[in-house]
Amino acid sequence: MQMTFRDRKIKVFSVLYRDENIQSYNFENVLDTIRLSDEFNYTGLLLFQSNRGNLEPWVFAQSVLSNSSTLSPFIAVNPVYMHPFTAARKILSLGSLYQRKIYLNFITGTSKSDMANLNDYLEHDQRYQRLTEYIQIVRHLLTDRKTLKFKGEYYTVNDLQLSDKLPAEILPEFFIAGSSESARKANAFFGSSSFGMAKDVKYPPSDSLKPPAKQALHFGIVARPDADAAWQRMKELFSGDEMDKAMLDYSMGNTDSHWKKELHETIHLTENPVQTTYSLFPFEHFKADCPYHAGSYEEVAGVLVQHIVNGVDCFVIEIPSAGEFSHVNEVFQLCKSIIQHRFAI
Question: What InterPro entries does this protein's entry cite (predicted)?
């Protein structure tokens, strides 16, 4: 799913939805998500990384490439799981085999308990320092034929190189996840795209184009022709009980993630007369790790247009079930139409 706005290519990724029973992920659902994402022309599919469950993103990346015609895997890469040389070699192998671009979402952590399981006790800012070294090595190996000598605090390599290079047009695109100052510094250092949560936007719609923010916004969508029907569907999908809220509270004590804490702090502060589609209902009931927009096709399309004219050029969209793909497609088709008519593109 591609859109163009004033010479900017707007990329749209779907998300491999996180099965409630993550310990035994339903592989048929994975293939359905790949098929539907390909059918509706998404740029790619985000594959998450976790200690728990049977989902290995590098394995499923090959499934995305082999079971779709144009879809690209958007792979979560965490230094704690893999040496940068191994990551670079996997990227080279997949790109060379399928001649398709790979997108990388560099992350720095998981839950505190997962990190303890892996004996990884680095502090938040230290993990971003390690990530910066990691990306430097990966980037050099993929783009420079010279051998690499690198001595950092976390990685040291000597005369390291890959045996081949990818064509420039399919070199991977880097994203760094996070909303902290450390994440912003890392993105500024590499000129990469910031991968973060869509917040409750309080600026009014504008027809003036601000400089691109190189930002990927992650949120879910539940939409229907009528707003009331959308909110009813939202409740059907995500309603929970006090136990779910208790699980959220527990998870908040098990993370040092800035973006997750920011969402948690604003659960009861999301009323906005300018933008009424924004909701943390799924997050509050421990059913999603991101905000959602729920409303009519027109309302949600208006939110997307607002983000685009203010510089966002990448959307990562959670779609909670196979039946929701067609409704989300209606939103994006309407978004394209609004852009074409309003800006005569």
Answer: Luciferase-like_dom, Luciferase-like_sf, SsuD_RutA_monooxygenase
259 CA to centre of own chain = 13
pLDDT tens string 303-327? 999 999 888 889 999 999 999 999 9
In CATH terms, the fold of domain 2-343 is TIM Barrel (3.20.20)
Quote the CA–CA distance of 148 and 52 in Å, as a whole number. 34
CB 107 within 8 A of CB 49: yes
Nearest to 316 by CA among 217, 201, 223, 172: 217
Indicate the domain borders of the chain. 2-343
| Type of residue found at 182 | S
DSSP-assigned letter for residue 46: E
DSSP structure string for 50-108: -SSSS--HHHHHHHHHHT-SS-EEEEEE-TTTS-HHHHHHHHHHHHHHH----EEEE--
Task: Enter the tokens of residue 58.
Answer: 């590098």
Q: Is the pLDDT of residue 207 over 50?
A: no
Q: Give the amino acid at 30.
A: V
Give the pairing of strands 215-224 and 314-318: parallel
Q: How far is CA 92 from CA 49, 78, 162, 173, in A?
A: 20, 18, 9, 13
The rounded distance, in Å, linking the Cα atoms of 64 and 70 is: 9
pTM: 0.85
Question: Which segments of the chain are extended strands (E)?
Answer: 2-5, 8-15, 44-47, 72-77, 103-106, 148-151, 156-160, 173-177, 193-197, 215-224, 278-279, 292-296, 314-318
